[in-house]
Design goal:
Distance between the termini: 37 Å
Helix content: 40-55%
Low-confidence stretches: 1-8
Strand content: 5-15%
Order of helices and strands: HHHHHHHEEEEEEEEEHHHHHH
Largest sheet: 5 strands, antiparallel
Mean pLDDT: 93
Length: 405
């Protein structure tokens, strides 16, 4: 990689963003053609995995000095909204890998060297959903951990995993909450993912037993809110509020799924289909269809505008080296929830246009619907919870019912 690219700040480089978005757009037909296979396998189709890996789409957020792009959340939204047009599960997995790579990039240089030093294309996945029975104890030079972590999207593609530990503090009864980086070769994967939507994400569980994790591969959980790299003048992207970045990045695949669903319906309409139960021989001539298509396109545009506003706020603060206050982060949570609701509404309108035929298993629209309905229920993007968070912030209520906004 040449010096000019190394000196470029990706947060302010529309050329690099456009290049990545164009590369993602070229993969849409491939993802779309393998979407049914990905769903059937409950994991990415091999051809899709190979293409995303070869294109560097798993490591966009990794440090430049290790071969990544240090991509910010605006780039992630744009890139994965393109990929989501082809396959929601595939876009989700890539987005998860980018979020996990961002978290791994917060660790010390020794840990980052462990991950990417010998292989700049190494893939990271993550699960912060540990079982209540998990254990973690201090040991000389690090920690010994045992347990199970659930919903690890993309675990089958990963070489490294980020997980959350609750280290027991002897004598105090308190817990030291930490993130840990562990090699995927040291875990056992348990096939637990069996959902009606996002089936192809392979979001299975992984377990470890008495695994030693050296101290340098752990990080206080608080680093997600107050990055240890917040004063880094070179890697400004890692100053961002991680909860804001992780939640907002979901907008990429979700907006992509909604656009993919609209494109699918438009392609069906262009075939000149009649409207059942009416005298319309071509649905395009039906005013209700015309109005619905306009409404759907506007709903998706609205979602995108909210996502971009929030992303621009996150990145502007990162470039200034500032930490967003709770009110700003609460509004970003609200924006994220709005994205989810508008995209849900858009696809519901499209289902009304398709009638009962939209639910045929051979109809891609029902897959977009199931995938989007599942993805928009993720805890980080819950519209109802995010509305509560924003409302409390607006009313000056300092107490929130989530550990990190």
């Amino acid at each position: 990689m040449n010096d000019s690219v190394l000196e470029c700040d990706n947060l302010n480089d529309p050329r690099e963003r456009a290049e990545l978005r164009s590369a993602a757009r070229e993969l849409v037909p491939l993802l779309r053609s393998h979407a049914a296979e990905t769903e059937r396998l409950r994991d990415l189709a091999p051809a899709v995995d190979a293409a995303l890996r070869a294109g560097g789409f798993y490591t966009l957020t990794a440090p430049r000095k290790f071969g990544g792009r240090e991509a910010g959340v605006r780039t992630i939204i744009e890139v994965y909204s393109e990929l989501g047009r082809g396959c929601g599960s595939s876009a989700w997995v890539g987005k998860i890998h980018c979020g996990a790579a961002h978290m791994a990039s917060l660790f010390c240089d020794e840990a980052r060297q462990d991950v990417w030093g010998e292989d700049g294309s190494a893939v990271v996945s993550a699960s912060l959903n540990g079982s209540a029975s998990n254990t973690a104890h201090a040991a000389p030079g690090g920690f010994t951990i045992s347990g199970e972590w659930r919903y690890a999207s993309g675990v089958h593609q990963a070489q490294w995993l980020v997980c959350k530990l609750a280290v027991e503090q002897e004598g105090s009864g308190e817990q030291d909450l930490r993130l840990a980086l562990i090699p995927a070769s040291e875990v056992s994967i348990v096939r637990t993912w069996d959902m009606a939507g996002m089936e192809g994400t392979g979001s299975d569980s992984f377990t470890v037993r008495d695994l030693f994790v050296p101290a340098h591969r752990t990080l206080p959980l608080a680093a997600l809110d107050d990055s240890p790299r917040s004063q880094d003048d070179v890697e400004s992207v890692y100053r961002a509020s991680v909860p804001s970045m992780l939640g907002l990045s979901v907008a990429g695949p979700v907006i992509g799924m909604a656009r993919g669903a609209l494109e699918h319906v438009m392609s069906m309409l262009e075939q000149g289909r009649p409207v059942t139960g009416t005298t319309y021989t071509n649905a395009i001539d039906f005013p209700s269809v015309q109005l619905a298509v306009a409404d759907v396109a506007s709903l998706i545009d609205t979602a995108e505008l909210h996502a971009y506003r929030a992303a621009d706020d996150v990145e502007a603060a990162s470039l200034r080296g500032e930490r967003l206050d709770v009110a700003a982060r609460a509004r970003i949570r609200m924006d994220t929830g709005v994205v989810m609701l508008r995209c849900r509404e858009a696809v519901e309108r499209l289902l009304d246009l398709g009638g009962t035929s939209a639910f045929a298993r051979t109809n891609a629209l029902q897959r977009y619907w199931r995938d989007l309905a599942t993805a928009t229920r993720h805890a980080l993007v819950s519209p109802s919870l995010n509305r509560e968070i924003y409302g409390r912030a607006l009313l000056g209520i300092t107490e929130q019912h989530v550990p990190v906004v």
